[in-house]
């Protein structure tokens, strides 16, 4: 086994799932069609200065209209599963109340189309497109948003719970809570550290209530999951502990153990007394899940900030102008430049961090099956003279991370699958269309799809279960 995670010829266990992932606002477009209500990302992207180049998801990959040929593309790539998200404002345009049948019909067709092609539907209820009406009523810092989410989950369970293979409640609540309500680089762009912690709690509550609602309404036998972006922080122990508390355990402890950790409460005491946590909440949050979804891209190097030098901030986000992605620890921890090669996002490439994360999760939650629900990279790829996209850097990134995943399985980690982010180049949030993560290139002028070398490579993996040469 090579130490640099470049092995090929390694075989994954039978039944291991290979898939790709997208999210509704990033690919669908059709922002004003068939009764879809506005979401916070419509509002945010239309606000000057929030998204690179003024890009919006109004058209995106036009997947809302091209879903059928996109499904053919997935079948051609040999995918065993497709992880997509459902736009809440298509289902319940104002967040609560009237259900929009046209929205349900779209996802129902999508699910049927996947099943017809032998691709398992992995559906996420929330990948950041909150109905604007709910934000106007307070957003995630307001407890009522968790009530609304449970109602929405019941609607979906009844409509699709006979066919969906895996339900995922939330994608990356860390991003929703802290980038959306603390740091402000994501919609709705608020910079309120205390509110971002209330948001984290209400996301946890929404997760637990949605699981209960989905279980009560799904008539098939779906699996249940949540997807978290977990941080691999390295460096000074006390700084690592703080980032682990507010970045990871704020979600894993209530969801998987039914508690909030004392050190997290202490670290954030100057911001909140956590009185938004009511009796019974932790029991509601602590629902069993069949698989924990993990999104992994890179690592962080941290140390305690002494306060007498300008604080370095290189946590992978655009400058926040005063916002914080780390409530309670933002003025205590500093993020140092990362060693090694970087992607076009300026995130460091560290497959050993993925192995470390999987080991940590196995040690903390030995009984919990895991799934890598996102991993991938943006590079400056282009169409070459022969019409192909020769994204050798992405192939190398994927090979090394899949080799790390394979090694984790050898080490006894109960890892069930891997989803590459992303199927298509798409709307990369604050970066608009400037950053391309797809294994399939999208020409945003004419919506042409071109399978990149990485897509061909991934097909080899997905169809054989063996890491290709
Ligand atoms: C995911 O979020 C999203 O789910 C997806 O929609 C998005 O398109 C995709 O990733 C690519 O961005 O501090 O060095 O670890 C990614 C969330 C959180 C990953 C912050 C990178 C910062 C870099 N990101 N993290 S680092």
From TrEMBL:
Mind telling me which Gene3D superfamilies this protein's record contains? Glycosidases (3.20.20.80)
Q: Kindly indicate whether the keyword Transcription regulation belongs to this entry.
A: no
Q: Which reaction does it catalyse?
A: Hydrolysis of terminal, non-reducing beta-D-glucosyl residues with release of beta-D-glucose
Please indicate if the UniProt record lists Hydrolase as a keyword. yes
Q: What EC number(s) has UniProt assigned to this enzyme?
A: 3.2.1.21
Say which family it is in.
Belongs to the glycosyl hydrolase 1 family.
Q: What is this protein called?
A: Beta-glucosidase
Give the organism the record lists. Answer: Microbacterium horticulturae
- Cite the source lineage: Bacteria, Bacillati, Actinomycetota, Actinomycetes, Micrococcales
């Amino acid at each position: 086994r090579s130490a640099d995670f470049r092995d090929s010829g390694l075989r994954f266990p039978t039944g291991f799932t290979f898939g790709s992932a997208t999210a509704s606002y990033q690919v669908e477009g059709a922002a004003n069609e068939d009764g879809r209500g506005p979401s916070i990302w419509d509002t945010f992207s239309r606000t000057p200065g929030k998204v690179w180049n003024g890009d919006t998801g109004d058209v995106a990959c036009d997947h809302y209209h091209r879903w059928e040929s996109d499904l053919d593309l997935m079948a051609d790539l040999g995918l065993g599963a497709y992880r997509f998200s459902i736009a809440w404002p298509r289902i319940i345009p104002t967040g609560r109340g009237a259900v929009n049948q046209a929205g349900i019909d779209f996802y129902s067709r999508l699910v049927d189309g996947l099943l017809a092609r032998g691709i398992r539907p992995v559906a996420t209820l929330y990948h950041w497109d909150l109905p604007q009406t709910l934000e106007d009523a307070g957003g995630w810092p307001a407890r009522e948003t968790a009530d609304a989410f449970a109602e929405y989950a019941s609607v979906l369970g009844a409509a699709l719970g006979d066919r969906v293979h895996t339900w995922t409640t939330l994608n990356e609540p860390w991003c929703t809570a802290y980038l959306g309500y603390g740091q402000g680089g994501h919609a709705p762009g608020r910079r309120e550290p205390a509110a971002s912690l209330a948001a984290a709690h209400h996301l946890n509550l929404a997760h637990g209530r949605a699981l209960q609602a989905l279980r009560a309404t799904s008539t098939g036998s779906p699996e249940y999951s949540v997807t978290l972006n977990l941080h691999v922080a390295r460096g000074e122990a006390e700084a690592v502990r703080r980032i682990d508390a507010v970045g990871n355990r704020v979600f894993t402890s209530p969801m998987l153990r039914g508690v909030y950790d004392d050190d997290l409460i202490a670290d954030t005491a100057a911001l909140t007394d956590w009185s938004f946590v009511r009796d019974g909440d932790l029991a509601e949050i602590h629902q069993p899940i069949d698989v924990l979804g993990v999104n992994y891209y890179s690592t962080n190097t941290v140390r305690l900030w002494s306060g007498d030098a300008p604080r370095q901030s290189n946590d992978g986000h655009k400058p926040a102008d005063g916002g914080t992605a780390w409530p309670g620890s933002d003025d205590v921890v500093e993020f140092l430049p990362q060693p090694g090669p970087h992607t076009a996002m300026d995130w460091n490439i560290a497959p050993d961090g993925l192995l470390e994360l999987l080991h940590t999760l196995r040690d903390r939650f030995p009984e919990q099956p895991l799934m890598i629900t996102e991993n991938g990279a943006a590079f400056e790829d282009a169409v070459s003279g022969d019409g192909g996209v020769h994204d050798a850097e992405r192939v190398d990134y994927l090979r090394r991370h899949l080799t790390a995943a394979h090694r984790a399985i050898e080490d006894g980690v109960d890892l069930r699958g891997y989803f590459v982010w992303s199927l298509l180049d798409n709307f990369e949030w604050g970066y608009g269309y400037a950053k391309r993560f797809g294994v399939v290139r999208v020409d945003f002028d004419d919506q042409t799809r071109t399978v990149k070398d990485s897509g061909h490579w991934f097909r080899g993996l997905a169809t054989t279960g063996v890491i290709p040469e």
